[in-house]
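Cont'd.
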Amino acid sequence: MDATKPMTIQSGKSGIETFSCRIYYEDTDAGGIVYYANYLKYFERARTEWLRKQGVEQRSLQQTFNCLFVVRDVAIQYSKPARLDDVITIYTQVKKLGRASIVFHQQAMLKELALCQAKVTVCAVHAHTLRPTPLSAELYATLQHAGK
Amino acid sequence: MDATKPMTIQSGKSGIETFSCRIYYEDTDAGGIVYYANYLKYFERARTEWLRKQGVEQRSLQQTFNCLFVVRDVAIQYSKPARLDDVITIYTQVKKLGRASIVFHQQAMLKELALCQAKVTVCAVHAHTLRPTPLSAELYATLQHAGK
Amino acid sequence: MDATKPMTIQSGKSGIETFSCRIYYEDTDAGGIVYYANYLKYFERARTEWLRKQGVEQRSLQQTFNCLFVVRDVAIQYSKPARLDDVITIYTQVKKLGRASIVFHQQAMLKELALCQAKVTVCAVHAHTLRPTPLSAELYATLQHAGK
Amino acid sequence: MDATKPMTIQSGKSGIETFSCRIYYEDTDAGGIVYYANYLKYFERARTEWLRKQGVEQRSLQQTFNCLFVVRDVAIQYSKPARLDDVITIYTQVKKLGRASIVFHQQAMLKELALCQAKVTVCAVHAHTLRPTPLSAELYATLQHAGK
């Protein structure tokens, strides 16, 4: 990935949510930088906040709708590391909303510096059987309005 | 804590279980050493293996007995750090088995070097209400035989 | 611990810092509650923010002063669990500032509900040797003003 | 991904390393399954053990060769979840060894069940500058013999 050409999700279009988080000791490793798996945590925090902004909380999703979102696919490219005390920003955009899945583009930035970017596909599954299940009409309609 | 005087749990008495784990990048932080909260993970892995050795798996405990063990109290002293690639050993001993709680002494060692030690109190709770619940007579009897 | 009698650090006295954090999937475990070791992460985030409020960043501490704070001792009591989507608040108070160590009282609250509380002792060590080292006079003076 | 058609790395060819790990509470989340980011931890443990088998330890790599391996790119597909108490096996195979990078295929299995698979590209960087750096001739020769 060319770190000088960040994804279009930074372009300020509507429908792009931002979420910031501070890097603490827990996030770093003995290489002195953020451990690579942790960006998946930040990306999930950001998706959860995107969902909350649509009025949907994960816990009620699970308890009321018997629905969980599980990640099916991640393609992530790392270009620059973050370090202790940095404040990074996660940009999140829905690229495709299906009846049982959502494709997100997400990017972590340190100010103007692109750290990493990912395409993440999540699927709706039944909370107990974990089988794929279409979103309820109500939930689908709610999410369709997101980013408009 | 005086690192030259490790706890009695190293003394080779019966009833002391050992569990070894390797230190990976995920375990370390930007200080170059194992992040302090991670020892609580190793201690729980060791308690889980102690329990498994008594024939009890956490998942069946939850599903068959509607029982979870939750940690009520931890007192931990850190004396020396572990680092990337180290193999550390956790020594685990039951100090007190109650009807609804267990007190463990646990110690992390790097060969002869004491890294940290803890007294950990876990309580049995109902898996759904999370209210304290006595161990079933069967489970209590099983655990009473441990370490004898 | 009696959850109805939280520590004095909630009493609104000066010198008590608050830090809030949201509970995400990464924080929870298959018991449906926050994994016990994670509270040590939240407590460290809160101590780091306390330090930042005194004008001291961990990274500059390490790079400029060759100093790390390492945890020497934790005594933590858990009373109630937090769950997915909760926003918890960490209260942090310095109980004792020594020449090479700091004792903190910290408490995690879910609104009015006390979740857990800890006494945490951190020591200043040299960043490379990890040997105990007194705080520089400048740093000591800075921290002495905290909470006044 | 079609879980019934696992990657070729299971086919028992030479050059495929296996690494097993137990799932503990720390690995799971409130959905009752292993948290998706944690598979990247298991994959790194497995790559580290692959490297160790070639006689190379990460810590000496950093201290002797001033070299770190950092992850540049991950493409991971999740098909089935693992749960508490499961023992999963990670299969690791080098697909391409470059002068400054290595491409791995990795797969997590629960017995015969494919859980997830990933293509992971790691790059060698200088331990301090984090700039890409070719592997030393000695290290390159060592790794070339791996899997032969």
